[in-house]
User: Fold these one by one.
Assistant:
Number 1:
Amino acid sequence: MSEAAQLRAAVIGAGPSGFYACGALLQAGFAVDLFDALPTPFGLIRSGVAPDHPKIKLVTRVFDKTAKRDGFRFFGGVEIGVDVAVAELRARYDAVLHAVGTPHDNQLGIPGEDARGSVASSAFVSWYNGHPTHADTSLDLDVERAVVIGNGNVALDVARMLVLDPDELRTTDVADHALDAFAGSRVRDVTVLGRRGPAQAAFTTPELAELGRLSRADVSADAAQLPLDAASAAAVEADPELQVRIELLREYAARAPSGASHNVALRFLRSPREILLGEDGRVTGVRVAVNRLELQPDGRLAARPSGEEETIPCGLVVRAVGYRGRALPGVPFDDERGLIPNAGGRVLEDDAIRVGEYVTGWVKRGPSGVIGTNKQCALETVAAIVADRDAGLLARGDGSADASDPAAADASDAALEAWLEERCGHAVAWSGWDAIDAHEQAAGEPHGRPRVKLVDLDRMHAVVRGG
Ligand SMILES: Cc1cc2nc3c(=O)[nH]c(=O)nc-3n(C[C@H](O)[C@H](O)[C@H](O)COP(=O)(O)OP(=O)(O)OC[C@H]3O[C@@H](n4cnc5c(N)ncnc54)[C@H](O)[C@@H]3O)c2cc1C
Ligand SMILES: NC(=O)c1ccc[n+]([C@@H]2O[C@H](COP(=O)([O-])OP(=O)(O)OC[C@H]3O[C@@H](n4cnc5c(N)ncnc54)[C@H](OP(=O)(O)O)[C@@H]3O)[C@@H](O)[C@H]2O)c1
């Protein structure tokens, strides 16, 4: 197909959803330019998945293959909405696809939330995974007890990371600054707080089981918090996987302490009311409401305060209560749900479809689901793009494109590259990421580590330039 005849898609965000979409778009005959704010690809696979779960990261091999296909180009280090406007992409591409994830954290809205010693999981996880934005975050691990608020898999990742033996971490790709901090950490006890009961926890069984096998930490549950109300018991009865999870929790409650140096305590029916601070403004504890469950008309069990309260002393609080999207300039945003409004992946503006603009991944459906969930999600969106193409609806320069932008008329490979070079001379091609990847792996190899991550943008760009 000639360059002029081939339709072009711009995909914004090189996480799993963006990459799955790239694969499907290439398959459907599009030329694809993939943009990411970072010089490194893979989104939360690089900056979210826990360092002690290396097998999960092997999925990037599939994306490596996508990146080697004809018609694919990567422009790393280009933040859309900052370096380049979405309207400028609309002027140059037949389809623009948002796959930017949901980088912000949910707020608890309680006093003390932003105090020193209280950190969002988004920052904590990015810090230990070496995301450049959080590489300089200073975290005080010179405390004995941490409280992790939330009952999802991210909460369990955080709890596990806080008690892992540094020798186990030393063979992972954890960021060097975090490895040093974990090695010097005084944290011994981690309490994980769920606002609802054990049957409503969002974490999954393998992750819960993993807590029971930690090398230097016991896991405990409070037997008094495990009995199920009638509605929870019915839910457990109907779900074999949930039965395994509840059995596991009962087993944890019955375990005698082994004498391990560290402990992870799972506590249910506890909502944070206030993060308590000392005179120096640092976290000293969490005041929690003891909850009971109340059946809602829609069948959901909601946590309601029983009137009783408790205080849990601690020096560190990690708030792992879910993520939310960030509004991009010029892109519709549903502030309540924290995502881009859409109908099956077609972006909606005031309930009308913005032809030629699409969305996939967490920013399309909300921040839940594992890496593989994004494949189906991306396929749905790409099916919408292909249907719009086949209906003759895709036309470069439509919609919000700036008609006064003469450069937009020429959307050849060379013209696009020249335009990006002029707009942000630092864009990193896939070969540049290959250079970073090789550098990181070479640095890790002598230490038996998969890689030593570069966490500084200037260093990354120096490596790309061959420095
Ligand atoms: C802490 C954590 C641990 C997880 N662990 C696992 C696990 O072990 N196993 C599992 O299966 N799933 C795991 N998940 C879930 C999985 O990571 C997500 O399902 C998946 O990453 C969502 O993909 P996404 O492409 O929508 O978003 P993301 O992965 O967040 O990718 C979004 C990309 O967009 C880029 N971007 C954002 N804004 C812009 C912009 N303006 N311009 C250009 N680029 C931009 C970002 O840099 C990023 O690369 C985990 C999630 C979290 C939060
Ligand atoms: N190993 C893995 O496979 C892995 C690892 C990490 C993440 N992930 C996936 O990534 C996705 C996101 O994980 P996540 O843990 O961020 O989100 P999540 O699964 O949605 O869990 C969020 C937790 O926060 C709680 N919460 C929300 N608001 C709260 C509040 N105000 N006070 C107290 N608790 C509150 C929720 O309780 P309620 O239920 O009561 O709302 C829930 O327990 C999930 O799909 C997860 O499975 C997978």
Number 2:
Amino acid sequence: MTDLAGVFKLHDFEELARETLSSSAFAYYSGGAGDEITLQDNISAFRRRRLRPRVMVDVSMIDPSSSFLGTPLPIPVGLGPTAQHRFAHPEGEVATSRAAKEAGVMMCVSTIANRSLEDVAAVGDAPRWFQLYIHRDRGISKAMVERAVAAGYRAIVITADLPYPGYRERELRHPVVYEGEAAFGNFAGIVDSEGAELLQLLDEVVNTTVTWDDVEWVRELSGLPVLIKGILTGEDAALAVEHGAAGVVVSNHGGRQLDRVSASVDVLEEVVQEVSGRCEVYLDGGVRRGTDVAIALALGAQGVFIGRPYLFALAAAGEAGILRALELLSAEFVNALGLLGATHVRQLKRTHVV
Ligand SMILES: Cc1cc2nc3c(=O)[nH]c(=O)nc-3n(C[C@H](O)[C@H](O)[C@H](O)COP(=O)(O)O)c2cc1C
């Protein structure tokens, strides 16, 4: 059993996960596209930034709480949509969902999760968004959106950066082996996914025909706020607003899609300026420290999501691992707020970062 008391930073979970995961599962979780330039840059771009603390402020009471599209949350950090949690835990996304519920954080559930969106929701009432890959057969997506609404998901996050899967060399070198129950829970009874290879399923799911018109379609269909994930330019952020998006997620899919696109934090301000308060802006990619969260918020993000760190934590120590990861990030964030001279997330300002 992993000794969590000896884990002091999110990075530590990666090495622990390497010991427990098969080489193919580790390759799937950790890898990026091409030369992994964007993957590395997501981390280095945060590291390049410096903070400008303000002193002589009474910081005896610090409140790190926030809200995502109006839902109050204890910290401005959520669990981003990632596929295939069963590599890390036999109960897959249900284990993740229990941890998210206990911590009270937002969880965004993937279309290509192993467990169905209903199984995840059955863990109990908690803030959840559903991530949608729009299927080339719109009837399949329509049914999935309706199920997400019925199961109490509070928003639909359309992932826009996967018209084709990224060229991920680590996955080619260590092909993922799907055994037994490697089902894609949301597709049970819809496509023959039992024992299917991920790439085979992606070929069904991945859709080269998704356009801005689909945003209005999903909005009307669901009656829920819709966010667009995978925005990397001011131009597309403006289009997202024009098509009624309630939010955008500045993201390069954790460096897994097009290599050599900018680090998320490097394009955050461009997007924030373009939308100018017309929708909420979130960021994912490379968030590993409380100071990263503070930087993203100071640059205008409403909140951030993490991906790999919680997958590694789940693999290393199950639900307790995810809870420890969130506890560390939260404690670091509170510490950063206090040392920056801010008592609340709203006090984080552009002038805190250079
Ligand atoms: C193993 C893995 C699977 C992922 N699966 C999905 C997915 O199904 N849908 C999606 O929108 N994004 C997916 N992503 C991207 C994440 O939502 C997120 O953009 C990325 O992990 C953030 O970067 P980070 O890992 O550096 O925190 C996945 C990422 C990883 C690492």
